[in-house]
Amino acid sequence: MATMKLQREPGADGKGVVLKNVKYFGAQNNDGFELYRSLDHSANLPGHKFAYSDRNSFLISIDTQEGESAGMGAAK
Length: 76
What we know:
5-stranded antiparallel β-sheet, 76 residues, flat, mainly beta
C-alpha cells in the first residue's frame, strides 16, 4: 500500500503559494506550480519501502494541443 497526504501551503495572503511563469517540458500552457507540504508520503511494497513527511510537493495542471509533440520525450 502506498499513501500520500498533502497540505497546501497558505502563503502570505492565505490563498496558497503558486509559482508562475515556469515552463514545463512540452506543455502549451500551465497555471503554475501549486506548493504543498507532505503530511505523509509512504509505501510498503516489495522493493519500495519508505516513509517521509514534511517534504515539499508541487502540483501542476497542463494544457497540450492535440497533434503537438509534448512531454519529456518531445523532439526539438
